[in-house]
Amino acid sequence: MEIGAQRRNTRLIKGTLFLFTLVASIPFLWILRDVARMMFAPIVYYDNGVFFTWLKNTSIFVFASMGISVASCITAGFVLAVLDVPFRRFLLFSTLATMLIPITAMAMPLYVMVDRLGLNNTLLGLILASSYFPFGAFLSYLYYSSVLPPDLVGMGRIDGLGDFGIYRHLGIPLSKSLISVVTFFAFVGLWNSYQLPRVLLAEPSKSIMSIGIEVFYGQGTTLIALMMVIPSVLLYLASQRTIARGIFSGAVKE
Amino acid sequence: MIFPYLAFMFFCGIIPIGYGILEVRNPSWVNMEGGFETFIKVLQDFRVGPAIINILFLLGIFVPLMIVTVLVVSLLLDATEFRYNKQMRLLFLIPGLIPVAVAVLFWSAVVGYEVVWDKSNIRWLIGAISFSTGIGSWIVIQYGSLRSISQEVLEAGVVDGCNRFQLAWRLKLPMIGRYIAYMVILLIANTLQIFNEPNLLMYTNMTTDWSPSQIAFGYAFKNADFAGGVALSLVMLIPNLILALLFVLNTDFMKKSKTTWR
Question: Which residue from A113, B80, B149, B169 lies 20 to 30 Å from A213 (Cα-Cα)?
Fold first, then answer.
């Protein structure tokens, strides 16, 4: 028999088996569905399903802030490490200093600023206030100052590349693992953020998961703890291949 | 290219600090007359002394322990091709991924309610929680930095007669020196600002004023005394800034892109 026909037959057999197994497992899946419903019922049906509003708000907040912060801090790390910018040392020191300031000192001024912009109690206000990620910027700076030797940048210049060209053709291709690491830490920080959302989002209907789940103390909290950890673990598992390859792998092998 | 980041740094970092410093001048619960004496007066609060001793305890015992553990575990994970390497790193990381809002139940279940209610071990318990939640992310970063040291450099070390310990001590650690410096600064800063861990045990051990950050938080959000809260937070920032400056001035922490050692 032809190899192609053999493969087709194998696929057909596997498909039929899969279908039969699925039909056979319907009663079991039904039980699982009911068990899951019972387990998650206190959470999912609480206050007319406000959980889903929190989930939606959290998704918007986390992904928007993460996108802004990762893009801005990786670019900043590249510029500070590779290009000639005025006040470089001052900018680096400011990055480090702002990272060391407790959120207690920052929360109230941020609240006043967000309120003056008319964004109090809105996701946009929280997104803007949370998009500054100095930890990622400094990590990116350390990364680029190790992996991009001046000789390589010089070669890029000889080839006629400008600042943005060097970033696009050298910086970004080299930063896959850096992006994974910074994205992971940005996600975890935002997903679990507590103090700033607590100050900036007062209305329960506009809240996010990390604040909203407090109402479940004593009623299925362990389950919600598990639910809160799963996204971070999945993201870590997805990005750990690039991390394990070496966060700071160099551009030049001598 | 750097403009978006600078805009965020300015609006979410520098302006809030400036605003906070100006706010300290206003009359407050700590300093009715107002003025910059608030910085001195917050330190005279009877709760601040014991809180600083608590922090010194963590700085003296747990921070060095965390630094050593992170480096030892990262070096061990990097030293051999171990089948369960991935899973081990994940297990170190998980305690740090649990959100603050639910962590109290998690930790009560882990250490047992009788331990949580025992006031005599509170420093050790808080130290253990901060240790457990703090090391995972640094292991990920330091392991990643170790993985990127080129094989040629390590092979040259082996040819020169280095054993595994010497490879780690003489080659690997100096090569990731800047990342270690970054970790040390942030671990000390996080300890000086410690808030979540004692806050978790607030209901069982009355640790509402255990750390300076909690006292500052209490000023700002319980007593509506923002000036006092910011003043204490900024005073606690001074050791951080001195430490950061020492690192910046004494290491090549802020040197531009250098010829790579890889």
Answer: A113
Asked whether the beta carbons of residue A245 and residue B1 sit closer than 8 angstroms, the reply is no
Q: CATH topology for B23-250?
A: MetI-like fold (1.10.3720)
Q: Are B12 and A132 an interchain contact pair (Cβ–Cβ within 8 Å)?
A: yes
Burial class (CB in 10 A: 0-12, 13-18, 19+), B120: exposed
- Please identify among residues 135-164 of chain A the ones whose CB lies closer than 8 Å to any CB of chain B: 135, 137-139, 142, 144-151, 153, 163-164
DSSP 8-state secondary structure symbol assigned to residue A170: I
Chain B residues close to A108, C-beta within 8 Å: 20, 23, 220, 226, 229-230
Interface mutation target, options B1, B5, B28, chain A, most CBs of A under 10 Å? B5
Using one digit for the tens of pLDDT, what is the confidence trace for A108-123? 788 888 888 888 888 9
Q: How many CB pairs under 8 A join A and B?
A: 257
Domain ranges in chain B? 23-250
**Does residue A247 belong to the interface with chain B, where contact is any CB pair within 8 Å?**
yes
Q: Residue A126: its pLDDT value, please?
A: 92
Which pTM does this prediction carry?
Answer: 0.81
Q: What is the ipTM of this complex?
A: 0.79
Nearest alpha carbon to residue B142 among B88, B83, B80, B69: B69
**Domains of chain A by residue range:** 1-33, 44-244
Question: A224 pLDDT band (50/70/90 cuts)?
Answer: confident
CA dist., res. B194 & res. B192, Å (int): 6
Closest CA to B179 of B73, B94, B251, B258: B251
